[in-house]
Design a protein that fits this description.
Aspartate Aminotransferase, domain 2, 438 residues, 14 strands
Length: 438
């Protein structure tokens, strides 16, 4: 009797019986999109009884490498851990001192984003240097970067805001000119393209998140990618407790010299599996999570196409209804084809109060989110933790986003009727607003 096949048949039946599509008047900003394949993979990995990194993790890493055309991929337990790992890698003693990230060195970034793009800089005892963003794409203002560079600048870390790529041509020119590291936070932009090349290939290190809000999900999870063999060795070491050994999980003596090392002040022959060359963590992903990711990767191209289609339809309808009288509508960066994460709206009409509009939308079951931390330097933890940072110029546009920006969903579960419902609710809001102000 093939118990597995019976189990998988029941799972398929269970999914069909319990899966329900969203009603037209319920519009979350994001959410997981899956079918029975994710459930079957998850169950199969559970029945393998190998619950740490295993065969599904290997397959998922290979899928990511192939999709993004990079040499190395390391799965981790979250996108936040991915960013921590990426920045921590630059502090490795294996990196030449002139390029190594050391205490009080600087990394240029933006304050308009998610905290865990910035926090690893602080946790590495470096100093974040903030420059302002553009309003048309909420991305870093490339023209301000060179003015922010000092003799302590070692790297730039930026996220592609809501899936919209940065101006990578000009950014890469600056990075090469000053010999800086580039960490590409690709967590919101899996599938985005710049000059026909997928984002996640441009950085010395790039990161991904697989939280349910993102383009694909493993529940919790992320990845760190690079084309640099030395950086990959460092990334794997820090991810795997900081150990010097590079054996895959569950394997011993890959190098054939397990008891032939003498490193640090340890005695000769100390077990290589317990020699630690970096300050590390255990940031690995479980094989059960990776099994979900394997099934999600099969849907990624479809997910990206739907996101683009939803974005284009929503923008077209906003223009047809003249909502651009009230908002700055999102525009893609030149030479890019974004895999949109959300639809950003920036209020430009003084009579519209964001809080009033967000409450109106929420009451009608249209989900909204702010642009993450707004101006990170205004967050309470920046004051509570006495964080050292530098601002070059001003953050006027960042503050504008903090006060007047929000975004709504375009993720793959949403269909045309959901978008039309969004339009109808915005129309009702503006109609009521006009009647009140008569």
């Amino acid at each position: 009797m093939n118990y597995k096949q019976q189990i998988f048949k029941l799972i398929k039946d269970y999914y069909k019986e319990n899966h329900k599509e969203l009603p037209y008047n319920e519009v979350p900003v994001s959410g997981k999109v899956f079918n029975e394949k994710e459930l079957i993979n998850l169950t199969e990995s559970t029945l393998d009884l190998w619950w740490t990194e295993g065969r599904f993790a290997t397959k998922f890493e290979n899928q990511l490498k192939q999709y993004l055309n990079v040499k190395y991929s390391s799965l981790v337990n979250s996108g936040s851990s991915a960013n921590l790992l990426a920045v921590s890698a630059l502090t490795s003693p294996l990196i030449p001192k002139e390029r190594r990230l050391e205490k009080k060195d600087e990394i240029i970034t933006v304050a308009a984003g998610f905290p865990t793009t910035v926090n690893p800089i602080i946790q590495s005892n470096a100093i974040p240097v903030f420059v302002d963003v553009n309003l048309e794409n909420a991305g870093i203002n490339i023209d301000l970067i060179e003015e922010a560079i000092s003799d302590r600048t070692k790297a730039i870390i930026i996220a592609h805001t809501l899936g919209n790529p940065a101006d990578l041509d000009n950014l890469i020119k600056i990075i090469k000119k000053y010999n800086l590291w580039f960490i590409e936070d690709n967590c919101d932009a899996l599938g985005s393209e710049y000059n026909g090349q997928k984002t996640g290939q441009f950085g010395d290190i790039s990161t991904l998140s697989f939280y349910p809000a993102h383009h694909i999900t493993t529940g919790e999870g992320g990845a760190v990618l690079t084309n640099n063999e030395q950086l990959q060795k460092i990334i794997r070491s820090i991810r795997d407790w900081g150990r010097d050994c590079f054996c895959p999980t569950g394997k011993d003596n890959t190098c054939g010299k397990r008891f032939d090392f003498q490193l640090g002040n340890l005695p000769y022959g100390y077990d290589h599996k317990y020699i630690y060359s970096h300050l590390g963590y255990n940031l690995k992903m479980s094989d059960m999570q990776a099994a979900i990711g394997v099934a999600q990767m099969e849907k990624l191209d479809e997910f990206v196409n739907i996101r683009r289609e939803n974005f284009n339809n929503l923008k077209r309808r906003f223009k047809e209804e003249h909502f651009d009288d009230y908002f700055i509508l999102p525009s893609k960066t030149a030479n890019s084809n974004p895999s949109w994460f959300g639809f950003l709206l920036i209020i430009k009409e003084k009579n519209i109060k964001r809080l009033e509009l967000l409450k109106y939308l929420n009451e009608r079951r249209i989900g909204t989110r702010l642009l993450f931390g707004g101006n990170i330097t205004k967050q309470p933890y920046f004051k509570n933790c006495d964080i050292t940072y530098r601002i070059k110029g001003n953050l006027n546009n960042t503050d504008k986003l903090m006060h007047d920006a929000f975004w709504i969903g375009i993720y793959p579960a949403l269909k045309f009727e959901h978008l039309e419902y969004i339009i109808s609710v915005f129309k009702d809001f503006f109609k009521e607003k006009k009647e009140i102000t008569k």
